[in-house]
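Design review, sub-item: ligand-bound model
Attendees: FS, YL, KQ
YL presented the inputs for the MGD complex:
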Amino acid sequence: MPDIQTTASTCCYCGVGCGVLIEHDAQQILGVRGDPDHPANFGRLCSKGSTLHLTGDLDARALYPELRLGKQLARSRSDWDSALDHAASVFAETIAEHGPDSVAFYISGQLLTEDYYAFNKLARALVGSNNIDSNSRLCMSSAVVGYKRSLGADAPPCSYEDIELSDCLLIAGSNMAYAHPVLFRRLEEARARRPEMKIIVIDPRRTDTCELADLHLAIQPGSDVALFHGLLHILMWEGWIDRAFIEAHTDGFDALKALVRDYTPVLVAELCGISVDELQACARMIGSAPSFLSLWCMGLNQSTAGSAKNSALINLHLATGQIGKPGSGPFSLTGQPNAMGGRETGSLSNLLPGHRETGNAEHRAEVAGYWGVETLPEAPGLSAIELFDAVHDGRIKALWIACTNPAQSLPDQTRIHEALATCPFVVVQEAFFTTETCRYADLLLPAASWGEKEGSVTNSERRVSHVRRAVPAPGEARPDWAITCDFARRLEQRLRPGQPSLFDFAAPEALFEEYKQLTRGRDLDLTGLSYALLDARGPQQWPFPEGASEGRARLYADGIFPTSDGRAHFIADAYRAPKEKRDARYPLTLNTGRLRDQWHGMSRTGTSARAFGHVEAAVLGLHPDELSRRRLSSGDLVKVRSRRGSLVLPVQADDSLRPGQAWLPMHWGDRFLKGLGSNLLTLPAFDPLSKQPELKHAGIEVSKAELPWQLFALVEGDVQKRFEALRPLFEDFAYASLTLTGRERPALLIRAARAEAPAAELLARLDVLLGVDHGPVLAYDDPRRTVGKRVRIEQGRITAIRLAGETAARDWLRALWSEGSADDSLRRWLLAPLSAPPGGSRSAGKTLCNCLNVSEAAVCAGIARGLDLDGLKQELKCGTSCGSCVPEIKRLLVTQPVAVSA
Ligand SMILES: Nc1nc2c(c(=O)[nH]1)N[C@H]1C(S)=C(S)[C@@H](COP(=O)(O)OP(=O)(O)OC[C@H]3O[C@@H](n4cnc5c(=O)[nH]c(N)nc54)[C@H](O)[C@@H]3O)O[C@H]1N2
Ligand SMILES: Nc1nc2c(c(=O)[nH]1)N[C@H]1C(S)=C(S)[C@@H](COP(=O)(O)OP(=O)(O)OC[C@H]3O[C@@H](n4cnc5c(=O)[nH]c(N)nc54)[C@H](O)[C@@H]3O)O[C@H]1N2
Ligand code: SF4
Ligand SMILES: [Mo]
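KQ shared the predicted structure:
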């Protein structure tokens, strides 16, 4: 038994920022538990956090620097010295020849605060460019603008505790049951304790989050501003506003009043596609609640009206005086684990460290003075979409990408792939070599990842945690701050030789210490924090100025706001419809977002078969009426077209959507599904202020894809290696999807289709890679070679399956594989090729409870026997560990038929 140690750290996924206890033997991570002492989660973890130790297969990790010395060549293994010297030379030459704005950095909300700080100093102080932006542009930038425009500073004013204390909670454009599950658990528990608490959900889809809702407003996509103005109209009419607060602490109310006068209940109900009664009920809940809190996420931010949506919602808080009090306030949920840290350190092109602005000469002078450089660049930097446009048209000639996968996550992927393919020099600093972006790296730098690096992060409630390292990084991977500083020192030798280094940091703590002084006297002042204090007293909220004994749980309790006159501003933006209105050619609106158990581009979660148990493959959801209108059935392959391209994948009836809407998970890019994924379809239009793109509303149309020749394959073992070998073959198919399956014996599962049978040579190559070309394989090929079946059986168990041309037996065979059996019926079926599979078409079904491996079928059977939630928990154990599946079980309890007892 190895010596097991425990290191307290944080979960690397969402902005809840849960504390985890990593169990390890100083070499390898062996397990993970929730940290009972962490104030975000008090020991809870969701289905993603609790399976962290099962992800991150070494076969998928980037282990060594790799360099390509010409676009046509393959990358080959390098060493850190040569790799970083080469990068420094290319950057220095590019800057010398084309100026500092010919290079750019595209970074991530998943970096640690120390990493961010190093990148910012590198771009602004050394390179002299504001071309540094992050994926937070796709995520939180509308919330940043919302807070700054309305309240004066980018600070979510609430604490998690307020979610539990509130009397009325409005959840808008957030599926927190999937995306912030531990907070949702806290809300569920609070609601069980205080059933009188009112919960409103505003989302075009009926999500699992609606399981807690007293009122769900399934508004038309993008109509939130109209809704919020309509609510304010009623609040004013009914006298449910706080005139004293408006008078004492705000300005701009008259202009807003004039605007919302036109947003009558009838008009708003029409614009939003809801009833006047629903609208009135919503206003009544808000207006009559002693405390009112709102939570929101990407349904508001990812929109061409993202800034307006944020401010229109904050208007409701200002008008009712519901801010700065327990259980009240506008509380934006942060997506990534340290998007907050990015905002604090200035990691959007328009920001500087300490909540400063690049456009403000005083701010630039303050930071330049502190860093000891003459000036900071004045020219505005490019935001994510603009930045990749500049790469596309050749203005940016050297691009450094860290901890993000733009070749999957940015809208209009065709252009992004073109841009990356033509950019003269692309550096990718990544933990997993498998991402779509790594394909374009001229220099791939292996980064340490979760459990392997030290630093700090800030979660959604402004709480800073010390992230501790448990094990060494694999291969030659290094922590991000160290890579960045090492490169910066080499670039310094070329750009400012002989001068003292700006990057003389021996450890992340030195970066934190230097950075924190830039927050002194600012709204986020964290000069009172240090690693030692965080270690002694646990995670702390900012502001936490030097000399303070604790951070502040709630901002603006005194009604004074960090604006020039101390007053909060009402913002009067009119409602604007999404950019792509539905029309005859593109009559459906595509909405995209998250699944419960996957994280973004799946570089980490996609290495674990368990994460695919809940949803196995990318499927387009459509309302049943839209399917019948197009003569489609669930499971059919369809071609999905937008103005930017088309994609082939299966369709499924989904009655959580309204007619006219479609839904696709955001996680699939060009790896697990052929064709660049949801962002092939999305549009690059962005909000005029926040520059955040409209990832939630693209016009599309769907039609049947006639691809009768189908392939199904399953092969167990060595999944990552086989994946890499098999993936290239799928260029020959119109549809191809790869996933992992099998909890105990992970296997690769492949589905593909094309119009007619491929050349025999393609199948032969496939068979070699699947291991069904020789050895203990039962095989049948029809004389015309359009139908072929192969099953490999070792020690009485199926270990590989390949069905070509005719796949009716796939579910039956997969079930046999999963049970570990291979009986005589298999041989009989193989030799009588046109007979139906003896097991019928048994469907494998999805795993509902991933912790305890309980399938949806088992839960439905339990419900049919009359079990209620407690009964199901007791008998099947589902929902008793992390609880992530409980909302879904509750929904099944409502919708599944129950046996009627006599
Ligand atoms: N499981 C999981 N959790 C995650 C992540 C993950 O990848 N996987 N990622 C993290 C990150 S970075 C982020 S940003 C968050 C995102 O967290 P969320 O924003 O909660 O997640 P999404 O699924 O992107 O979108 C939320 C909802 O917005 C709705 N929506 C779409 N259009 C509109 C609209 O016009 N108005 C309104 N009111 N609603 C609309 C969608 O139907 C969807 O249900 O999740 C974080 N947590
Ligand atoms: N259609 C659509 N598109 C979307 C969204 C949507 O809702 N719909 N949401 C948008 C949002 S909100 C977000 S936040 C983005 C997310 O988009 P991305 O940022 O592209 O998402 P990830 O896949 O999390 O990328 C993080 C990368 O960092 C790598 N990594 C992990 N740990 C480390 C580390 O410690 N160091 C380094 N250097 N690398 C590491 C991971 O392997 C991964 O490839 O997607 C956006 N795109
Ligand atoms: S809610 Fe889940 S994914 Fe988010 S930080 Fe906590 S454990 Fe991680
Ligand atoms: Mo995000």
